[in-house]
Automatic annotation (TrEMBL):
The chain crosses the membrane at residues 12-31, 37-55. Keywords: Membrane, Transmembrane, Transmembrane helix. This is PH domain-containing protein. The keyword Transmembrane helix applies. It comes from Corynebacterium stercoris. InterPro entries: DUF3093 (IPR021443). The lineage of its organism: Bacteria, Bacillati, Actinomycetota, Actinomycetes, Mycobacteriales. It holds the Pfam family DUF3093. The keyword Membrane applies.
Length: 150
């Protein structure tokens, strides 16, 4: 069985708020970018690149034969199927929950979120909440591979 990748890009209200913030920041920096000298232009470009990276953020769930790996922005956790106690469709997240790797309410809960629907993976020690475009398919895939391992 081959690995399957489920991805979710920054979306919904989170994307709109981030886009508005990026445009506002760049508009505020534009006057310094057109001034003589390179410092204003360099700052404008650096901030523009930072916003481009943030707006292209995505969360991923890699369902492999032996484990599932969840991640966002280059940070990830690998969870062997033997450690997974439950997997289910989680709640939708938005602006209030933020984006990126988040410490969520509850004992040792970690979110890899970019807004929108999620998958909740529960282990003996940690609850993971990961954004996914199609959480039902990701849950079914993980459950199927867990069942094949037991």
């Amino acid at each position: 069985m081959e690995a399957t990748l489920y991805r979710q890009s920054l979306n919904g209200p989170v994307r709109w708020v981030a886009t508005a913030a990026a445009l506002g920041t760049l508009a505020a920096l534009l006057p310094s970018a057109v001034q003589p000298g390179w410092v204003g232009t360099a700052v404008f470009l650096a901030v523009g690149l930072l916003w481009a990276a943030l707006l292209s953020m995505h969360a991923s769930i890699l369902v492999a034969p032996e484990e599932v790996t969840v991640g966002v922005m280059g940070m990830s956790d690998t969870i062997p199927y033997a450690h997974v106690e439950a997997v289910e469709v989680g709640p939708s997240t938005g602006v209030r929950e933020g984006v990126g790797v988040r410490f969520l309410k509850g004992a040792n809960s970690t979110g890899y979120v970019v807004g929108g629907p999620t998958v909740r993976i529960t282990t003996r020690t940690t609850d993971y909440l990961v954004s996914a475009r199609n959480p039902e398919a990701a849950v079914a895939d993980i459950r199927g591979r867990m069942g094949a391992r037991r």
